[in-house]
Amino acid sequence: MASSSDTIEKSTTSRIPCTYCPKTFAFRSGLSRHIKTDHHEEHESSYNNCCHICNAKYASISVLTTHLKEQHAMTIPIETHSFSSVDEFEQWKSEEEKKCKSHYVQHTSSQFHQSRKCWKLYCNRSGKYQPRGDGKRVLKSQGFSKIGNVCIANMKVTQDTISGNVTVEYYPVHNSHSIDIAHLPIPESVKLNIAAKLQQGVPIDRILDDMRDRMSNDGASGPELLLSKQDIHNLKRLLNLQGIMKHSNDYESTCAWVEELKAKHYNPVIVFKPQGKEQTGSVNDLAKDDFLLAIQTEFQKDALQQYGNNVIMMDATHGTTQYNFLLISILVIDDHGTGLPVAWAVSNREDSMLLMQFLIVVNERVGSLTPKYFMSDCAEQYFTAWCGTFGHNNTQKLVCIWHVDRAWRKSLQTHVNSQQNRVEIYHHLCVLLRETDQSNFILKLQQLMSYLHENHHEFFEYFNTYYVPHKEEWATCFRIGTIVNTNMFAESFHRLLKVVYLEGKQNRRVDCLLFTLLRLSRNLVFDQIQKTEKGKMTHRKSEINKRHASAEESLNKALYTTISEENSSWEIQSFTSADASIHYTVCKHIHIIHMKESDESKSMSNTERSTEATVPFDRQYFSKAHQGINTVGSTSDAEKVKKEITSFMHETESLLSACDDIGTMEAVKQHMKSAIAVLKANPGHEDGV
To answer: Is the domain of 384 the same as that of 512?
Structure first.
């Protein structure tokens, strides 16, 4: 048996306190009588139903309605309607809302009284705005839909649960606000029409055009006039027509996707490490908070094995999810000269450790690869991770010159104060970057470094630390004949993903990104089939055809004259061209040689051009043919050039005997080394490459 003190404590804690004084009550009825008797004025001040004319407050909408009738002589009619079913009532309600440009919503649950079901519908503008988030989002341009006060327009609905008949007591007059379609939702009929078209795969732009055409013809004046692409995007996301979101929680939905893909005959998910969980197996160097989702379809695996021994490109795409995760892509170049993504990883960071975990599982699937070139941005972690996984194997690292140029311009803003000096230095950097002769490059580099050391020491330290030791990675003269100069294949993929597949919208969820990548990979298969069977006019083929047309025009107009044709070496008078040596495009000079050798001067048909451009170009013939072209405009033969070089050597020897300055001799030494390197690179040299 409980003690008396326990009983007193229990009775005290269960009593209902008054909000205006220290008194407590056992029942709510007693509390209500107390408030009406002792706190009438204070209680009235807390009422939410305020008159928009005199600011008087009342306990209910019905009392406020009576006040407006009696005190302010407002005409407030009451309409009564009867319907045989709820569907008939809903149809009438939709028509009434469309006619009056209003919308009614239910604030509380329905009440049941014997055989009756009762509920009340209020104007959607009635009430106060209740924020649900933390206020980070900017307020909509039209403002709140809630007016901060009560609107007396409402519907009292009663349904007979036995017969199904519906009776409505309708107060159609609105107060405290104007009629504004900006605060009305899109009608359900319009939503159903849009949903049907989305289900059929009609593009959003086409849906919007059709809707506006129909509204123009019908003279619509409702909220559908304000329909935008964003509204259709929101509806598409909410309907989840493609079944992308398998759960409202992104993590649960992504896990469901991974499990579903595991059941397929070829599992494209090569690793999945969610945040907050430890990972075991081949991926074992990731922290608990790391996230890594890597995918590679069967087509991508085969493409990497086929093209991965030529060029490998790696880059990261930002802004693909709301979690600041990075989309890391591995790309190769196919036979048609287009970039092909062959693996993806979604991760929370891109340091060498995480990249190695990604590349380890790729290596397990495709085996060893020995690419000739590896291209990335200026960061070192990509090449470090690649060599740590696949080995170096004499792979030449190339840095995207677009990233180099951007880094230089950014650093000039930081380290050089004068705009005039920045422009001057940037000009010299561009000249240095585009120099195609190694000896000239070394000379210009020394001159630039001497100038920077004397006048702009901060930029000198930056350039000497990050670029001079790695000049072979970015200087054009050290990458003659390479296939790529910029990472535009990766940039092209970024645009394809964000503009075409994500439709220019900010993606927020990982499961949506996973679905998009799988769809993109599927479409790549069909693109490759079309390019193989039908051919495709890629940018590289188009450039080759332009060079061929230019060569035909030059031959027809006799703009090029063949000077010599000995030992398969051609010398042509022309301007210097970087097509073959830098851009890896069949330049017009090689077209001229080909037409000369085959005694053809007729124009190829479009079919012949496309077929010829589709055949993979032989790199050895490419290099050999271009080495036999003199594009400087000189008519000197080899013996004459040798005599000039010998004369320079004698003059150098004479000047060197009278020189005592160590700095000058070191500079000459560097140039001599460059000259020897150029001679050794000659194909006729026994040690040449």
So the answer is: yes
Shared-domain flag, residues 178 and 196: no
Whether residue 207 is contained in a domain is answered as yes
Same domain, 268 and 316: yes
Q: Assess whether 265 and 363 both reside in one domain.
A: yes
Task: Give the confidence band of 587 by pLDDT, cuts at 50, 70, 90.
Answer: low
Which of the four pLDDT bands, split at 50, 70 and 90, describes residue 621? very low
Q: What is the mean pLDDT of residues 213-235?
A: 82
H/E run at residue 70: helix 61-72
Look at residue 203 and tell me if it is in a domain. Answer: yes
Q: Which CB contacts under 8 angstroms, 24+ apart, belong to 516-523? A: 517/295, 517/344, 518/268, 518/295, 518/297, 520/341, 520/496, 521/268, 521/297, 521/299, 521/300, 521/341, 522/297
Sequence-ordered list of residues with C-beta below 8 angstroms from that of 563, at least 6 positions apart, any chain? 571, 572, 573, 630, 635
Q: For residue 680, what are its two tokens?
A: 């050794």
Q: Which helix (H) or strand (E) element contains residue 688?
A: none
Average pLDDT over residues 478-491: 74
CA distance 103 to 96: 9
Phi, psi of 539 (to 5 degrees): -60, -40
Do both 85 and 175 map to the same domain?
Answer: yes
Instruction: Give the whole-angstrom CA distance, residue 348 versus residue 275.
Output: 9
Q: Which of 192-201, 377-386, 628-637, 679-688 has the lowest mean pLDDT?
A: 628-637
CA distance 502 to 505: 6
d(CA 165, CA 153): 23
Assessment of whether the complete model's pTM goes beyond 0.70: no
Q: Which residues contact 523 (CB under 8 A, 6 or more apart)?
A: none
Of the candidates 239, 250, 65, 237, the one whose C-alpha atom is nearest the C-alpha of residue 151 is 65
Asked if 595 and 545 sit in the same domain, the reply is yes
Residue range 243-299, pLDDT digits in tens: 788 888 888 999 999 999 998 899 999 999 998 887 766 666 788 889 999 999 999
Structure tokens at 247: 């759960």
Specify the amino acid at residue 261.
L
Closest CA to 281 of 273, 289, 291: 273
What would the pLDDT profile of 413-449 be if each residue is shown by its tens digit? Answer: 999 888 888 999 999 998 898 888 888 899 999 999 9
Length of the chain measured in residues: 689
The chain-wide mean pLDDT, for the chain, equals: 79
Torsion of CA 125, 127, 133, 137, to 10 degrees: 40
pLDDT at 364: 92
Q: Are 181 and 301 found together in one domain?
A: no
Q: What is the DSSP string of 540-603?
A: HHHHHHHHHHHHHHHHHTT---EEEEETTEEEE------TTTTS----HHHHHHHHHHHT--SP
Q: For the chain, how many structural domains are there in total?
A: 6
Helix (H) or strand (E) holding 327: strand 326-333
pLDDT digits (tens, 9 = 90+) for 334-360: 888 788 999 999 999 988 889 999 999
Examine residue 57 and state whether it is found in any structural domain, yes or no.
no
Q: Are residues 310 and 267 in the same domain?
A: yes
The domain of 651 spans 638-680
- Any domain includes 427: yes
Comparing CA positions, the residue from 589, 524, 613, 619 lying closest to residue 337 is: 613
Cα separation, 161 vs 176, whole angstroms: 36
Cα(490)–Cα(380) distance, rounded to whole angstroms? 17
Residue 679 in this model has a pLDDT that exceeds 80 = no
CATH code of residue 292: 3.30.420
Q: Report the run of H or E that residue 252 belongs to, with start and end.
A: helix 250-262
What's residue 61's pLDDT? 85
